């Protein structure tokens, strides 16, 4: 059995350890944020140097990949002739991969961009929910790098809509 004084010392040590862990986590989060901001600033400067729309879109994809740590990123823009959203830039896939060749339909995007899954202007859906809302043709990729635990990435779908000033959807970034 521990005495009251020993228990007080144990509680104080545990409290101090908790503060140290929180401090270390905050420092790690700050370092990640600084790295991401530095990379995004570098992307901004490269955008000004780009000579074509294709170059800009590729710079955006690689910037998202490196700054935010995503393995694969693709941008799809609305094709005015069909209304579908074919891939126009991507990184992390081999050229000719089915993901890059498969457009997403406007109807599928309408079902995916549900306010229920909106977080800060982005849409994060569990894989099963995303797959349920899409036609089979639009479900051509499943995330390979997944975590464990209640807040871990597990084949989630992350979409960032690209909108005109009037709110109309012109494209989407998938990460």
Compute the CA-based radius of gyration.
22 Å
Helix % is 40-55%
Strand order of the largest sheet: 2-1-6-5-4-3
Beta strand count? 6
Strand count, sense and closure of the main sheet? 6 strands, antiparallel
Distance between the termini: 54 Å
Number of helices: 5
Inertia-based shape? elongated
Element string (H = helix, E = strand): HHEEHHEEHEE
Parts with pLDDT < 50 across at least 5 consecutive residues: none
- The percent range for strand residues is 15-25%
What is the residue-mean pLDDT, rounded to a whole number? 80
SS content category? alpha+beta
Jot down its keywords.
175 residues, single chain, 6-stranded antiparallel β-sheet, 17% strand, alpha+beta
Question: How do the helices and strands line up, and which of them pair or pack?
Answer:
Blueprint: H1 4-49, H2 53-68, E1 73-77, E2 87-91, H3 98-101, H4 106-112, E3 118-119, E4 122-125, H5 127-133, E5 157-163, E6 169-174
Antiparallel strand pairs: 1-2, 1-6, 3-4, 4-5, 5-6
């Amino acid at each position: 059995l521990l005495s009251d004084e020993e228990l007080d010392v144990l509680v104080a040590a545990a409290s101090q350890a908790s503060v140290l862990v929180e401090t270390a986590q905050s420092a790690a989060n700050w370092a990640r944020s600084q790295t991401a901001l530095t990379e995004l600033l570098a992307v901004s400067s490269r955008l000004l140097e780009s000579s074509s729309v294709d170059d800009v879109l590729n710079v955006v994809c690689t910037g998202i990949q490196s700054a935010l740590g995503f393995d694969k990123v693709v941008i799809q823009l609305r094709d005015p002739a069909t209304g579908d959203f074919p891939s126009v830039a991507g990184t992390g896939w081999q050229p000719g991969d089915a993901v890059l060749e498969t457009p997403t339909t406007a109807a599928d995007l309408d079902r995916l961009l549900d306010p229920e899954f909106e977080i800060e202007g982005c849409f994060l859906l569990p894989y099963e929910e995303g797959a349920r809302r899409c036609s089979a043709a639009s479900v051509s990729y499943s995330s390979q790098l997944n975590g464990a635990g209640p807040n871990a990435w597990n084949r989630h779908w992350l979409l960032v809509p690209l909108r005109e000033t009037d709110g109309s959807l012109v494209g989407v970034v998938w990460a």
